[in-house]
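Quick question about two entries, pasted in order.
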Amino acid sequence: MTAAAFYDLTYAELALTIEGYTERMKQSKRDLAWVVSYLLQPHLKEGATITPAQLLGEKEPRGRKRKADEPEWMTPDDAARELAKMQPAEPQAIEVKNG
């Protein structure tokens, strides 16, 4: 950013610029932590894992965790339910009134 462009910014624009820069840096760190966690995984003890959140000192993201005996892919029933959700609804007749 040039000096002239910097001095033309309002306080709100400057705050958004700083916020955007901060978010880009956080995302860059998350991306790097993801790569490092994959690189470290083969060197850990049997059964141990390391996550990007652990490397960054953040809380683990909340969400449904897959059980050890649960497959990573969908079962045919799950796939059928998801497909049914995506099917378009039956077309509805639209009544047009003249006048």
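Here is the second entry:
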Amino acid sequence: MSASDPFEVIPAIDLLDGNAVRLSQGRYDEATVYDSDPAKVADRFAAVGIRRLHVVDLEGAKVGRPVQGEAVKRIQNICYCCFTKLIQFCHLVNFLSSILH
């Protein structure tokens, strides 16, 4: 990659207990809540021109199945028309588990 190559920032919204959070060093017991409404966070990203969004269901990753479906639906309902690549939704653990079992 050279300095003239395009570079795209893809922000992430981590979901825990229905909130947009950031974990401290991956520790679930040390989460900082940035917003109680993740859909509003997604809307703010869209308002500044972000066209891709990475949404992480932290509880889903921990237990191996989707947990934050309602929060994801709210993000989709508010932002569906805003994003060209709406959501890269992380349930890799669940996906791999379903393949392996």
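Reply: Residues 12-100 form a domain with the TIM Barrel fold (CATH 3.20.20.70). Residues 76 and 88 are 12 Å apart (CA to CA). Hope that helps.
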